[in-house]
DNA sequence: TAAGTTTGTGAATCTCATA
DNA sequence: ATATGAGATTCACAAACTT
């Protein structure tokens, strides 16, 4: 396997096989119809990157309402309906096969998905000979909660990044990523908000597409694994986020999209897009996640053992730490903040400074344990 | 499908099929030999949870045969990539099949892996009928950097949590998780340090095991998806992190481990582990677990007099409590839930939190009266 | 205008006991 | 089996609205 970062190496690389001239490709066009058919119209080994956001094959039950009674607008589109894993797998194998064919030997593939489909996609692309370079976790800052309290909040999606094979070369702009990440190596978990607000495309007040991806995500993908002038194909173009970001970053793009409506929205969007300027670059840079600590994390990590007694400064109340990081004081229980609030009858309470514990005879605020934890956790 | 949180329901649930008495199981033992063989010695539908940390690197040991019967030399890596996946898949299917068999109908499975193997595992467990509930990202605070700068820092591993099937019940301690996370829903991305420092087991100054998992990870898994006394099986026991945390949390455990050395290390470790006190083990209960109270019972008991006026937060509607615990608002009548639902035109309504009443000049939710009633009725 | 409050919404495999 | 009714359940952010 290998990495290519300089334009020089890249040029040498491209000269090797019979290169397909870019002019032979439908650059800057949205091909209509089925993506497998559309990709068949492209020559072998002709593109640098495929970015794919295929249907996730969600299998939703009935309607879902929020606790306030409002209705959740779910993805119920026909294009996300498959009758079985077998049918979904066949579909996946077919489009991945075409993607592999049109990619140059040193090209790469990105696919985004959720737990509903990503394990099918990952296994199949490995079967086809793709070589996984990283799996990337898109950590959403603002995911939809789990309204019924039945599972963990589904707060991330997964991207797979793969080369043509174990020994294949690929483009990785290491230094660009390091710069983007405040001079630290870019990690496999990316903290990026979901696409809403002004960026979210609307038609007649309705969202134009149910699953529009944030531009920041595509920005990072293209900045990390393509260089200027590279050709990027998106087989599931939707509203054209890939095309818009590619145009902004000076990459060539080709989209495939079955639905007339989405093609129209995408075309309009990309026509308005302008090449990148410096100020835009700064805006796209992600902020580092704030080191917020839950009290429960300290208990899990053994910094405070369940059963430990904690008390307020004047020892008016004594409570016991339980396994889940809640406190128990007589019949009353709650979080460090909530129980402190209830006991005092106060409107709010900062449990970190309200509660104390004894450590080898010395009385300390809970906040002291939090500081120790943060020190231990930050490499 | 469904979630179970109360001990009461749980007991009823267990009584349904011919229950395997716990005494028939090798609780607190580390079974030697191949995990598939070891699991074969356990009865059907007998355990509550399987936690598995399978090998990624095909160190399967012993003789291996291709599906066509031809022999593969595992030690000299005498296979191509296709063989390698095939063999790994067969191995995975075999141990997952045994795991599924020994799990109770409402039991659950956890598997941890990295991008090398988790896509194989995920696809196969779906094929076997397991139903993925979440994929969880263990986000490492202190991962190994990518020294050569060729990829993104591989800063996470993935855990899959699955029930026996789409309609199967499963245990999820929602409120314990919410408490552990400072009163916010626990998300699918968990920030936990890697296992090092004093927790990392050493023998003669060397790491005892190359992939020892942090206890905080198992702590959260067991706290979230088991209750006290549940039986947890770990087919790839290693140095026994699962056993140690299970013992601490008052869960029963069974391990399988092929290597004598690891069995020795694990046994010594677990012998030293002490169970937590009863009180420390308690976790925040869900309201689902609380005894159900009929509104009519409050009225009967005089906690709310017939004729009392109740109203929603904004006083858009005012209703009168009737002797049978129903409400009347103009011509409309119904239960506290049903009337609230009808008046709002909402799909559902929790009358306990929707309706309010005045008690000595203070506005309170009906739920406050329920809490008073529960306190009075207990003991 | 500025500041505070209310409302809307996002790739979601989202209940359970009883009749 | 399937229908019914009780009742448990939400976080971050932005836009709209009010004071």
From TrEMBL, chains A, B:
The keyword Methyltransferase applies. Residues 277-375 form the RAMA domain. SUPFAM superfamilies: S-adenosyl-L-methionine-dependent methyltransferases. It is an enzyme of class 2 (transferase). Keywords: DNA replication, DNA-binding, Methyltransferase, S-adenosyl-L-methionine, Transferase. Residues 47-267 form the DNA methylase N-4/N-6 domain. Its EC number is 2.1.1.-. Belongs to the N(4)/N(6)-methyltransferase family. This is Methyltransferase. It comes from Parerythrobacter jejuensis.
């Amino acid at each position: 396997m290998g990495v290519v970062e300089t334009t020089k190496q890249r040029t040498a690389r491209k000269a090797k096989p019979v290169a397909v001239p870019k002019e032979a490709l439908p650059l800057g066009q949205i091909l209509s119809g089925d993506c497998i058919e559309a990709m068949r119209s492209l020559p072998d080994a002709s593109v640098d990157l495929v970015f794919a956001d295929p249907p996730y094959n969600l299998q939703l039950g009935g309607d879902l309402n929020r606790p306030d009674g409002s209705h959740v607008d779910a993805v119920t589109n026909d294009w996300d309906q498959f009758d079985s894993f077998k049918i979904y797998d066949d579909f996946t194998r077919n489009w991945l096969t075409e993607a592999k064919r049109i990619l140059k030997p040193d090209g790469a593939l990105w696919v985004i998905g959720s737990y509903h489909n990503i394990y099918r996609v990952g296994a199949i692309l490995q079967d086809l000979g793709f070589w996984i370079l990283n799996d990337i976790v898109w950590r959403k800052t603002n995911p939809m909660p789990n309204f019924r309290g039945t599972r963990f909040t589904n707060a991330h999606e997964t991207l797979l990044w793969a080369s043509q094979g174990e020994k294949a070369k690929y483009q990785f702009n290491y230094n660009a990523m390091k710069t983007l990440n405040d001079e630290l190596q870019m990690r496999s978990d990316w903290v990026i908000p979901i696409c809403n607000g002004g960026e979210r495309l609307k038609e007649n007040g309705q969202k134009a597409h149910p699953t529009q991806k944030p531009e920041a995500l595509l920005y990072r993908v293209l900045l990390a694994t393509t260089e200027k002038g590279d050709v990027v194909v998106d087989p599931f173009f939707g509203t054209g986020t890939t095309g818009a970001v590619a145009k902004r970053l000076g990459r060539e793009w080709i989209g495939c999209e079955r639905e007339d409506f989405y093609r129209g929205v995408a075309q309009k969007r990309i026509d308005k897009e302008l090449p990148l300027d410096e100020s835009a670059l700064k805006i796209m840079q992600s902020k580092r996640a704030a080191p917020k600590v839950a009290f429960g994390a300290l208990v899990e990590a053994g910094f405070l053992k369940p059963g430990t007694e904690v008390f307020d400064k004047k020892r008016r109340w004594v409570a016991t730490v339980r396994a889940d990081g809640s406190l128990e004081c007589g019949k009353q229980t709650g979080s460090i903040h909530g129980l402190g609030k209830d006991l005092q009858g106060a409107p709010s309470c900062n449990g970190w400074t309200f509660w104390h514990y004894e450590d080898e005879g010395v009385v300390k605020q809970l906040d002291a344990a939090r500081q120790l934890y943060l020190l231990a956790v930050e490499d």
